[in-house]
Write a structure and sequence with these properties.
Length: 282
């Protein structure tokens, strides 16, 4: 028989042949790649505007009066321009911006394809969350990237000042954009944390009570993870990302508690209090 909404056939015991799994995975990956390519083309066209926005945090670090009066001492270029040291670097930078920009624009499509691939393994009630999963996931990624963009000038200030006043500020496009992209990607991925925890609960892999018991380990793990995935390593960035991730952890616990409560009510209404007790202690 076919799995409703996916077109995938299942055997009588509810399982799916391996080759069909692989074929479905290939189809989802192709759609994701096409979405990234389409987004990359858009970002290639609007590269000048995107580059201006990416360089803006660097310009924010340099005070306006410094640019006009002391630019020669503080910056080799008299402003916040980036120094090209390789003739091939401008082309590679445009490719990088287009590629990562396309990946960012394709996030909603990628999340939708992930959900469609794992959807047959979920209960019928959980399948209704497909749109919410995609929209919330995309919004959280954008919110995380936006928070990273806001925090980049603070991180640059810390990194530029920690070496002392004798160092002249001057970044190459490749290294600077790599820093900015990694920061925004780290924050965007970090803000997907609650989506992962909610999905694991929907799939029955973890229970919200396990998350409650793991609170202390979660705090240490989140701080360690943020320290690894963020390229700046400054305490400000560490706090700015760690605090929301832990709040998301608590929100995932709240989601699990509410979901378990609804399940208990539904079970009681169906007339099976023993299952309700099992759900409350699971």
């Amino acid at each position: 028989m076919n799995d409703t909404g996916t077109g995938r056939s299942r055997s009588p015991d509810g399982t799916m042949p391996l080759m069909e799994h692989l074929a479905e995975l290939r189809k989802r990956i192709i759609k994701c790649v096409l979405a990234v390519v389409a987004g990359a083309i858009v970002c290639w066209v609007f590269y000048p505007q995107i580059l201006d926005r990416l360089v803006q945090p660097y310009c924010d670090v340099i005070p306006e009066e410094t640019i006009t009066e002391e630019a020669t001492r503080r910056n080799l270029f008299g402003g916040c321009e980036l120094l090209v040291l390789d003739p091939l670097e401008p082309f590679s930078v445009r490719l990088t911006v287009a590629g990562y920009g396309g990946l960012t624009l394709a996030v909603p499509v990628i999340l939708w394809q992930i959900w469609r691939f794992v959807q047959p393994g979920l209960h019928r009630r959980e399948r209704r969350h497909a749109v919410a999963f995609t929209v919330v996931g995309a919004l959280l990624f954008a919110l995380g990237a936006g928070l990273a963009y806001w925090s980049i000038p603070r991180a640059l200030n810390f990194l530029a000042s920690i070496g002392g006043e004798d160092l002249v500020t001057g970044f190459s496009p490749a290294k600077y954009l790599s820093f900015v992209i990694k920061m925004m990607a780290a924050f965007g991925i970090g803000f997907e944390f609650p989506i992962l925890l909610v999905f694991l609960q929907l799939a029955g892999i973890i229970h919200y009570r396990q998350l409650i018991r793991g609170r202390r380990f979660a705090i240490v793990g989140i701080v360690a993870l943020v320290a690894v995935i963020t390229p700046s390593g400054d305490p400000f960035t560490l706090i700015v990302l760690s605090v929301p991730m832990y709040l998301f952890y608590e929100m995932a616990i709240g989601f699990g508690w509410l979901r378990a409560r609804r399940e208990r009510r539904r079970t009681i209404e169906d007339g099976d209090p023993r299952r309700a007790d099992a759900g409350s202690t699971g």
